[in-house]
Design brief:
heterotrimer; A mainly alpha (333); B mainly alpha (304); C alpha/beta (362); A: mainly alpha; MetI-like fold; 78% helix; flat; B: mainly alpha; 0% strand
Amino acid sequence: MGRYTARRLLQFIPVLFGTLFLLHYLQTLSIQFGGDPIASLFGDRQPPEATLNAISRVFGLDDPCLDQRGNPCLGMFVDRLANYARGDFGIDFNRQPITDLIFRALPITLRLTLIAVAFECVLGIVAGVLAAIGKDRFIDNFVRISTVFIISVPLFVLGVLIQIGAGLYLKPWLEGLGAPEWFTAAFSILYQSEHPWASLVVPGMVLGALSLGFIARLTRTSLIEILRADYVRTARAKGLPGSRVVGVHALRNALIPVITYIGIDIGALMGGALVTEGIFNIPGVGGLVFGAVQRKETPVVIAVVTLLTLVFLVTSLLVDLLYAVLDPRIRYE
Amino acid sequence: MSDPSAAAPTAPGQTPDSGRERSASLWADARRELVHNPVFVISTLMVLLIMSVAAFPTLFTNADPTFCQLAQAYEPPSDAHVFGTTVQGCDMYAHVIYGARPSIIIAVFVTAATTAIGVLTGLFAGYYGGFTDTIISRVTDVFLGLPFLLGAVVFLALLPDQNIWTVGIVLVALSWTSFTRITRGSVIAVKSQDYVEAARALGASSPSIIRRHILPNSLAPIIVLATLNLGLFVSAEATLTFLGVGLQIPDISWGITVSEGQLIAVGGGLPHLLIFPCAAVILTVMSFILMGDALRDALDPKGR
Amino acid sequence: MSTISTGASMAGDTVSGGGRRSRTTDAKLSEIGFDESAPLLEVEDLRVEFRTRDGVASAVNGTSFSVDAGQTLGILGESGCGKSVTAQAIMGILDSPPAFIAGGSVKLRGVDLLSLPEESRRRVRANRVAMVFQDALSSLNPVFTVGRQLGELFRRHRGYTKAEARAEAVRLLDLVGIPAAADRVSDFPHQFSGGMRQRVMIAMSLALDPDVLIADEPTTALDVTVQAQIMKLLADLQAERNMGLILITHDMGVVADVADKICVMYAGKIVERADVYSIYRNPAHPYTKALLESIPRLDRKGQQLASIEGLPPMLTRLPAGCSFNPRCAIARERCTTDEPPLYDIGGGRQTACHYHEEVLGS
């Protein structure tokens, strides 16, 4: 296990720097080829040169290498990394440190993500197991068809349609029935800070919907294949009850790819949070990026995405290590 | 196309009916199964329909999508405008029809490019292994370290111009890795098969082995993924356009129609602003995904 | 030796390493009402069908045999002849669908297992009839330790605690000849060599002292030297415990040492039945004879390897008459129309060939 961990760490470090460099390089490329983003903010009314330079310096965009097309700007990259190590991710257009903005937005996004993950895992795995056990019967077809629908609907479409459905139809109907406010808050179309959990329920379910489809299918496929394995036959031959054969022997193996998928899915959840928080006007990290994109506040966009990427990479590493814990065959590779 | 099962000799003394055995080839089996699969047939027809809408929009509507009158903004469906009008006062039906083209063009272009790049890199990584594999795998890992949507948003937000080509290139840059992984896995699995070793023992050269043995037998998952990806890229483009970093006005795209309509639809009680473009997106994506799913089930020899 | 606190074990339960039997006091199992004086295992006219898209395949077409305590029955035949399906039908672990038991009976100490409800059959498994499979690597769960998989039997069937079950697991590993059993008990299956793994499977099958052990190709996946060790282990254990052993294989060499009597199967039917000496010395069926002749012999260097022409028939479309006739060296017209019954030819021998006298004479 120790050797496996060491190897994973050794693979992790170059990938970490590589990805950060990729982000950096593509940003410098776009500035070199696309022009100064600071200047383009001002449009037709350009301020004096000195002001432009000062602003550029503040945002760390005053390096002369940015004038040469194709220059990877390694010096700038190193400076950036040093800043990140110090916890400095730059400032936004209002001169607020971006890390402050992130910290304020984080708890909300964490709640949203928690709801989404709980929703997708519980429902997804249960649906997948039921479909696998009842293969080719009604429950199986039902799960297969409904997951295809869920996967085929892009997240923003789902969010927008649910927003309309909840806001225009469901909520007024529930209020007309006299439902208590904490309940109807769950169907509000926008985030409400007086109901920090309830108003995140529907957005959370929207966020988790796509992954739920994948998890259900993956669980189903995985379990169906495992149920055909020789060791499942052995478990039956041992006279174990069916619930144990499936629930312990089969599932323990079948869930391995599912759990690793959930780990990888964190990346998709991050992107999804961006869309979901944008649609439901939730002031989380995704909403932060969404707003910054609308206002063309590129430093915020880059900083937040960089931080999220870091989180994602670390999570991927942890998932890889978890995989070894779950599957003993991997530990001795 | 090399087919290992065709190499099995028919034995003498077989029962006389054996000549009527159906071909055991994976492709023949798949073709037979697909043609009888109603889901596949319907989704393929839908795909063809949508492709023709994208290619020949004038066949489906006479209205001019650029003719917009603010005075007629967001009107519900009527005789004059079957789907109503958009936020800008344009004919919604025309926008739905014309919106197909950029989405399909991007999807096709990106799928073609990612397939080509991914298959090539996956082939080299899987077949030659060793150092080549390490390099390609590390590069793949680096690109995979970027969450898809976040990466796309960053790049597109930084680019000065957002049009079909920039969106397309960004999508290619962030998605080629999925093909590499699948191809590599497939190639590695095929490479260790006995018939490849046999071919090598008979003196076949590497390129010929790749062309005649490895590639055809690794093709199945690639085809499935390509079909699925067509749908996913339509979805991705629509999402990016919706977020504001994809296609921009005055281009016509479903994502724009939805994003425009979103804010007004709920407050103003105008569901038609969203229902029609959303339905168009859903139908398009679903057709590709159903098609790809049916292909996967048909081509998977284990999934019987 | 194992330490088992008498408080936790069920009343009347004793576990020993030698030949003494233990009976679980599991209520359902004793309810079944086995008649200990009846023959150990009697299979009569067993029929198993597989209903597939391409038609109905008769995998087992009316086989009958019996095994007594302390006896070893060898079931011999090519792949696809129905021997594994027979074994799985006895155990009751066939996937149904597509398999269906179409007729016959499997009597264990007088009780027809096929007529029992699934709950009772489940308890019979591992307790009274156990099975050893061919490929131990794929037949053992890769994510659980060997100790846990062994101990599971004691915990689920006998109510042992974790510690007691583990002690039993160590004892069993020791019994089947795995060195340093106490350490190995917490290893995973992939950490064992092929032969050791097979020993683990045998240990697992013997854990609850079954009366009948079915070994389905137990040595096919192993090297020749390891094969001999495993076969010896099986023989010793069987003798110690006075078990009935059913040995299923396609390898005539393996079965010669161990078996008392042999059934040769072809296309779902038994085509010859005899004691082991007679089969080898003087086969009475063309198929058996051809099998014997196809064994490569070191003293016949330079001569052609004999093989049986043709392939086994498709179970969905069996030939008319004798199933073997397309490949038989002495087939006549009668063979294509009349299905041969099992002729009694004295000395407890039976053969399904119209022209068995010719075969015996040659």
